[in-house]
Amino acid sequence: MEDGRNTPVNIYDIAELAKVSIATVSRVVNGSDKVSPATRRKVEKIIEEVGYTPNAFAKGLGLNTMHTIGIMVPSVADAFMAEAVYNIEQELGQYGYDCLLNCSGFRPEDKKKKLEVLLSKHVDALILIGSTYAGHGNDGAETDYIRGAAKRVPVFVINGNVKGDNVFVTVCDDMSAVADVTERLVRSGRKKVIFLTDSRSYSANKKRRGFEEALARAGLPLSEDRIHYVKNDIRAVRDYLEKNPVTFDAAVATEDAIAIGVMKYAHSVGLRVPEDVSVTGYNNSRMALACEPELSSINNGLAKMCTSTVQRLMAVLDGEDGQTVERKVVIPCAFVERGTTALGK
Amino acid sequence: MEDGRNTPVNIYDIAELAKVSIATVSRVVNGSDKVSPATRRKVEKIIEEVGYTPNAFAKGLGLNTMHTIGIMVPSVADAFMAEAVYNIEQELGQYGYDCLLNCSGFRPEDKKKKLEVLLSKHVDALILIGSTYAGHGNDGAETDYIRGAAKRVPVFVINGNVKGDNVFVTVCDDMSAVADVTERLVRSGRKKVIFLTDSRSYSANKKRRGFEEALARAGLPLSEDRIHYVKNDIRAVRDYLEKNPVTFDAAVATEDAIAIGVMKYAHSVGLRVPEDVSVTGYNNSRMALACEPELSSINNGLAKMCTSTVQRLMAVLDGEDGQTVERKVVIPCAFVERGTTALGK
DNA sequence: TTGTATGCGTTATCAA
DNA sequence: TTGATAACGCATACAA
């Protein structure tokens, strides 16, 4: 043991060296005011000298918390998820909580398994990010595993609607956002607006409904070739459109990458953006600034969703168990117009 | 307590209900083969009925590990960091380890503080991602805090070189990669290649040195206006070039976003890519596919760096303390040519 | 194969 | 202001 590391020094060692009881050491470490200045200094000196650090597991065992929140996302490599995790991590840090991160993928059995892993580590609460955890937005069997988890700790879902006791959700108003932008495209003179998405999740379905209602309000037919399910991948979307000829003069996409795929297609067949076709993306990611022209995109208020989630999480942990904390919060979206549309006011 | 949640059931409860000792319950839970099938079934039945889960803190206290690795990045909102975290999380999960994630920012005092937070949670090891943690790549005072942490647990640094006992590093061969691509640009007939970076980190300095050596080998002068320090932001780079007129026919950037900023500038002043100017990026991120034409970029072998890191981490935790595990691994980079260069073979 | 007893390192209660 | 001691819940060496 000459390398200096792995020197397990505990509260008894400190007590012995300082010639006090472990209770006094504990008081010093935790900043109790029931310690005389003299003994405090004495104990602090020893602690400093031997480099004592309290054992977090023992502390956790006694207090029944290690101030850790479990975060689950399908993949943190996705830009949207990454930003969500970043926001949440920063906010939780402010309150002295840390993040146990878990990437579950999209397969239901994996989600369940990973959720169990997180729970087994005795986290204080769970935050699930992404509409993939919400099934189709109801309280059906597909989200039973979330309600199961909520029997143990409070569960917060971002961007998905799940009903259940001890389950709190934060969503954005996707439907209105898509309806608004679709309506504005039509009013600006576009005759054939198409809708592209990569998912049938709760969130994607809300967007689709917004699109369909806007068409209905405008008295436009909802033909089959208005709706397209594609992969969330620039090249895949371009290839899809090249292989499946659809004529359109505006495209509403539920992901920025999909929108850029549309732009790539337009470029390859000689259509000008926005003169010949308008394109709108979703999430207002950094990618929206990478293409040319820059992509108009819907900002879904991610930062606000994260802030609200963490605030309510803290309220719940602070013991406001029950009705005082909002079960569901809806954040409005904002359309950020750039060069791929010309909607005017 | 009628809501079913927060029902603390421990090993003693199970033992009592199953009429066995806690040792037997423990054996069942941990899959020991020293249990008769009959008692196993009996105990499992009770566990199932009352929904018993072992307390992770108590387990951690006894075994002195909770199988958790601390991950530190400056910001997980950055695409490169996010992908690194994703890779690592997936790999660690295979070995039954979880990630405590911490975003430190770039300020030295914050890095130290956050590192302390991670250590205070009694993680089994630390992984620091990004050359920002490496200072200037030496063993100077600026990285003392890392060696300090390494006195407590093994520390793994990705993309940065730090010397120290119990410190393991994984880097990519940035210098060769930049030197190679610069050389090829010159050979393809470019007269004035410029270099753009956003940092003076260990990694950025290696890239700069590669650029300078390539110029030297080609017998080209290294005038001051060859090297440019800019912000890692598309618009900022475009604005910078518009305000600081430099003539160039090729640009080597240390981030994809910087390269795209150069493309935006070229577009705004009517320069064609790649006919008038060649542009190369770094990290081969998804953004490289978003611009038009698609961006040639250097793939820094992130996936391989992560794999190597986790493998060696496991080796160290498995008790191969010492010399058997490689202290430093260098991963080669690969140039991915797309539409912004025309280097040929 | 099963049970008993102890240690792991805290915090908190209660006396002094 | 300080100290002794009991939880906290588990794993495990040792005994039976």
How does this model look, in words?
- The structure is a homodimer of 345-residue chains.
- With 345 residues, chain A is of the alpha/beta class.
- Chain A folds into 3 domains: 11-62, lambda repressor-like DNA-binding domains (434 Repressor (Amino-terminal Domain), Orthogonal Bundle); 67-171 and 303-331, Rossmann fold, CATH 3.40.50.2300; 174-301, Rossmann fold.
- The first copy, chain A, is built from 12 helices and 12 strands.
- The first copy, chain A, has a 6-stranded parallel β-sheet, sandwiched between helices. Chain A has a 6-stranded mixed β-sheet with strand order 7-6-8-9-10-12, with helices on both faces.
- The longest helix of chain A is centred in the N-terminal third of the chain and has 16 residues, at 79-94.
- Chain A is elongated.
- Chain A binds a DNA duplex (16 and 16 nucleotides) through residues 8, 10-12, 20-24, 26-27, 29-30, 34-36, 39, 54-64.
Cα Rg of chain A: 26 Å
Strand line-up across the major sheet of chain A = 2-1-3-4-5-11
CATH topology of the largest domain in chain A: Rossmann fold
CATH superfamily of the largest domain in chain A: Response regulator
Number of strands of chain A: 12
User: Which pair of protein chains has the largest interface, and what are the residue counts?
Assistant: A-B, 60 and 60 residues
Q: Can you give the helix content of chain A as a percent range?
A: 40-55%
